[in-house]
Design a protein that fits this description.
319 residues, mainly beta, 9-stranded antiparallel β-sheet, 5-stranded antiparallel β-sheet, 23 strands
């Protein structure tokens, strides 16, 4: 991590502890229990100053009903191409997640053509939303990375760039020649017909079910750690949803600070959005997204560091 980003991260954590929703300034986040999840609650804004509980760690569901879509936000931005929507959901969570917005991009099957962009300058990761192609309606950082290269399998325009990674909570994102995306989990081999593809982790939902590793502490995933989160998921009808959390306590300019949800909480957010299959992408100070309306200025949520790989969406309806 660059020195400037490291200093920003440390300073942000201190500010977060001071501003988090607990009664005591500087109170540390909740510790994981010996069994179960750390004590936490998620609430959704339902009006000016009013919130309703949508998820509790002590009664976290193991699965989410298909088509539930209990979490819907307020449309933001200008007019988007047909089949694409942009929403923002205001949440209130525990600790540093007390002020959290979720930016949600929905892309109906057949509304966009998806592909990947690799950006390496002399072997160094070099992609930011400033490099999003002019004709794209949306672009977001993809996968995870190790040092400067993406982690796991990457296929670019039909050619394998990196071999597959292995792990119980690895998901594979495959895009066919028509630009449609599907998610596979666990040991599924990258499909031969995929034109573009990458891997990421950890898996958040499999057919609406939360993986057992996200049910309790001590199962290989840190279920207490809080961070800015970014996830991608699919609905049964092929709709692709990208959801990104942003810190909302100090204005939009400081939304880039790495405060936010736990991994189980992000799984719940995706389930409540109606998602059936989902995986985390690189969040924290890497998370970045740009959405371009048909007319008017682009809406962007920047990150603090560049990344090697991006998922790009081109509208299939003429702009």
């Amino acid at each position: 991590m660059p020195d400037a980003a490291r200093r920003a991260w440390r300073g942000a954590r201190w500010v977060g502890w001071c501003l988090a929703g607990g009664a005591l300034i500087g109170a540390p986040p909740a510790r994981a229990q010996a069994t179960g999840l750390p004590s936490s609650v998620l609430e959704r804004a339902v009006g000016t100053g009013a919130f309703t509980t949508i998820w509790r760690s002590d009664s976290a569901p193991a699965a989410f009903a298909e088509g539930g879509a209990a979490l819907r936000g307020t449309p933001v931005g200008g007019v988007l191409p047909a089949g694409i929507t942009l929403e923002q959901v205001r949440l209130r969570g525990s600790g540093e997640a007390h002020w959290t917005d979720v930016v949600v991009v929905r892309m109906a099957a057949g509304a966009v053509r998806l592909s990947l962009e690799m950006a390496l300058d002399h072997g160094k990761r070099d992609w930011t939303i400033a490099r999003a192609p002019r004709g794209a309606v949306a672009a977001v950082n993809a996968g995870q990375f190790e040092v400067d290269l993406p982690w796991g399998w990457v296929r670019l325009d039909g050619h394998d760039f990196l071999p597959a990674g292995r792990g119980p909570l690895v998901s594979t994102v495959a895009i066919d020649s028509s630009g449609r995306l599907r998610l596979m989990h666990g040991g599924a081999a990258p499909p031969a017909e995929a034109r573009w593809g990458f891997q990421s982790y950890p898996t958040l939902l499999v057919a609406g079910t939360v993986p057992p590793a996200l049910h309790a502490a001590g199962r290989g995933i840190d279920v207490a750690h809080r961070d800015a989160r970014l996830a991608i998921g699919t609905l049964s009808d092929g709709t692709v949803i990208v959801a990104m959390t942003r810190f909302a306590g100090l204005g939009r300019g400081l939304g880039v600070l790495p405060f936010g949800l736990t991994t189980p909480e992000m799984a719940a957010v995706m389930g409540l959005l109606g998602v059936r299959d989902a995986v985390l992408l690189d969040g924290g100070i890497s998370a970045q997204l740009v959405v371009r309306p048909v007319s008017g200025r682009a809406l962007s949520w920047r990150g603090l560091r560049s990344v090697p790989l991006a998922l790009v969406a081109y509208p299939l309806v003429a702009r």
